[in-house]
Write the structure tokens for this entry.
Amino acid sequence: MDNLQKLATAFGLVSKRSKKPLSISNVHRILTNAFYYGVFFFKGEIFQGKHEPIITKELFDKVQEVLKFRSKPTLYKN
């Protein structure tokens, strides 16, 4: 994720308010936002947007698999 953050900074992506480089949580939020492949959620339902998708659903799904694989396991205590 650090590499993606550096890449985003190299492309000039900055936070909206502070104009500082994106934090890792900002990058993660972007990578998990379904809006970029053309859909959005409203009141628990999914809708097809009228906007043109930036990426394909297939690419989005691949990114989600990578993120799931790289995520740290959660330990549950009883």
Q: What stands out?
A: The chain is about 40% helix and 10% strand. Helices lie at 2-10, 24-31, 57-70. The two ends are 31 Å apart (CA to CA). The chain has a mean pLDDT of 88.
